[in-house]
Specification:
This protein is 44% helix and 19% strand. The chain is α/β, with parallel strands linked by helices. The strands form 2 sheets. It has a 5-stranded parallel beta sheet, sandwiched between helices. A two-stranded antiparallel sheet has the order 3-4. A hairpin with a 4-residue loop joins strand 3 and strand 4.
Length: 172
C-alpha cells in the first residue's frame, strides 16, 4: 500500500517522515525527485514546476508492499490513501518564518492551510484520508500517530480541524 504523507509546507511532513524512517518504515521523499521531474520554474512562487503525471507514473511503478510518499503533492501521485498533516496558521507562519521564507510565500501557504486546500485536494483523489493536527506536537508524536494509522487502518478521519475562525479574523 502506498500512503501519501501530505500537507501544506511547514506542517511537519519531512520531520515526521524522518522519525518514521527511524521506526523502520520505507519513505520516498518527493523533494529527492524534484530535479528528475522538473519541467520549469515558477518565478513568482520561487518553486519548481513538476511534471506530476510523470512523477505519478514513477511512483505507481514502485513495487513495495508498504511505502510512504512524503511531500506536499504526494496526494496527487496515485497513492492508495492519504494522511494530511495540518497546523494552526499562527504556528505555521512561525515555522515558515524560521525557514526564512518571503512574506508573500508565507501568506500564500498560511491561507492555503486555513482554507483546507490540501485536505480538499486529497479528498478529491482518495477515499481513505486521515488528518493529524501537528500544532504543538513533537515529530515523534506525529510519527507515532501516523504509524498508528498505517498499522490499524481505522476508518477515514477528517473534517474536525477547522481554522475558519482564524481565517475570519485575518481575512483581507
Amino acid at each position: 500500500m502506498k500512503i501519501a504523507l501530505t500537507g501544506t509546507p511547514g506542517t511537519g511532513k519531512t520531520a515526521a517522515a524522518g522519525e518514521l524512517e527511524k521506526m523502520g518504515y520505507r519513505v520516498l521523499h518527493v523533494h529527492d525527485l524534484v530535479e528528475t521531474f522538473t519541467i520549469g520554474y515558477d518565478e513568482k512562487r520561487e518553486s519548481n514546476i513538476i511534471d506530476e503525471d510523470a512523477l505519478a507514473r514513477y511512483v505507481q511503478e514502485i513495487d513495495d508492499p508498504q511505502l510512504i510518499i512524503e511531500g506536499h503533492v504526494s496526494h496527487l501521485l496515485g497513492c492508495d490513501a492519504a494522511i494530511v498533516l495540518r497546523c494552526h496558521p499562527e504556528e505555521l507562519q512561525k515555522r515558515l518564518k524560521n525557514k526564512h521564507w518571503k512574506e508573500e510565500k508565507i501568506r500564500e501557504n498560511v491561507e492555503a492551510e486555513a482554507l483546507d486546500i490540501i485536505l480538499e485536494r486529497a479528498l478529491e483523489h482518495h477515499e481513505k484520508v486521515w488528518e493529524i493536527d501537528t500544532t504543538g506536537k513533537r515529530e515523534t508524536e506525529v510519527a507515532e500517530e501516523i504509524a498508528g494509522i498505517i498499522e490499524t487502518m481505522p476508518p477515514p478521519h477528517y473534517g474536525e480541524i477547522d481554522w475558519s475562525e482564524w481565517l475570519m479574523e485575518h481575512a483581507g
